[in-house]
Amino acid sequence: MAGSRKLGRASDxxxxxxxxxxxxxxxxxxxxxxxxxxxEVRAMAxxxxxxxxxxxxxxxxxxLHCKRQVFAYVTKESVAKKLFDEIAPRYADRNGGYTKMVKxxxxxxxxxxxxxxxxV
Length: 120
Known about the structure:
Number of domains: 1
Number of helices: 4
């Protein structure tokens, strides 16, 4: 687990929520969520993109291992394919920093600090 924030949830619920949010981010390019969740999502999304970039390596066994790690984490097979085919090649010349977080102020209901996280 990236930053080990508990987010007020049991570990299985927290992991499932983060998997869903990372999948949605990779699918749509941006999501609106709380700042603490956005920080967790950013860490995992950057790991997934880095794994996607490792597919272009020379070692077939390492390629397969990276693919299996991504397929194990991302909840939609179509999003995993999009990660390998479109997203990872876009960041081929970039070492990290694939996401951008913009704070958008407090939420109306409970005043939680909100942010938009998007792929750069």
